Fold this sequence. Notes:
Oligomer: single chain
Radius of gyration: 19 Å
Order of helices and strands: EEHHEHEHEHEEEHHEHHHEE
Number of strands: 11
CATH superfamily of the largest domain: Thiolase/Chalcone synthase
Helix content: 25-40%
CATH architecture of the largest domain: 3-Layer(aba) Sandwich
Distance between the termini: 22 Å
Strand order of the largest sheet: 1-7-6-4-5
Structural class: alpha/beta
Strand content: 15-25%
CATH class of the largest domain: Alpha Beta
Amino acid sequence: MSQKADLGISSFGFAFGEDRDVAMSAGDYVDNPERVINWGFRTFHRAPDETHAIQLATDASRRALDQSGTVVQDLDLVVLASSDLPEYSYRDEAAALARSLGIERTQTLFLQEGCGAGVHGLYYVAASMNMQPEMSRVLFVAVNRVSEFHRNRMNVVNAVLSDAAAAVVIERGRSSSRWLATEQFTEPENCDLLRVDFGGTVNPLPPEGWSSRTAPGGHEAIRAQFGDDPNTLQRFLQNRYRRLVEVIDHACARAGIGRADLTHLIYLNDSATSINTVAEPLGIPLERTNAALALDHGHMGAADQLVSFGQQLERGELSSGDIVVLCGISTERWSATLLQV
Length: 341
């Protein structure tokens, strides 16, 4: 972009499923609960069976709108980023959110690009505001509501999957929580790594007797992909972190700053070891990451980074002028967004 839109976050709103104790619940999902408990997560959020993504997104949106004093008629764009299955096929879920909020004749955009969509989705907001100078307020929502029929929330990755939504109102001319840059790229080779093998046009229905409780998990998929070759697997894991640092460096270059200017890092809600692997090359200490918050939330998909950023602001853990990098991976898409407090 030749010019940058001058925009920032004016308010936050969150919605969470019911708090569940990981140690007490792990046996309901896996046969080896100790493995899950050893990840270190204390709590995860599970939405009631009747509460789905649009309801979570609506609740978070209303809280963000109320906090900023924004009425829905003032919104110029509604963006919904979802990291799990939509409620219905052949439906625009962003339009469903707009309808739930009582919005009419407003632009909507639906992003379904995995766990990093809450990070790189901010680029599409900035691009829209840059291309349309009349656009002054945008509602951006990131939601994750696990379909337990399709996925075992404790057997996909080394984190407990949680149900939550984070909503922000983004306004033109904001000097705080200001967007500086977003960078992203895709390495598509392993895009099938964590796919669900049914529910699409290739295999509409699951095999007879299939259950997410007993189906192979993400670790089995990784072993199958790399053929139990430890060297290839190790290179794959190392490259994931190297590419995160690479995409952060690219975002810094776009913003005209360097690594030394970064004060905080917010990654996916992962283990402290994993988060530190990203933060250490940047010179960011673990206490200036989301490592502590992650253990009480679990992995909330696309909502991780915005929840952590908003809660760190609420707790006074961020100071005016701090530059925070939000970063994430959506299978094979790496992304980073820089925000200045």
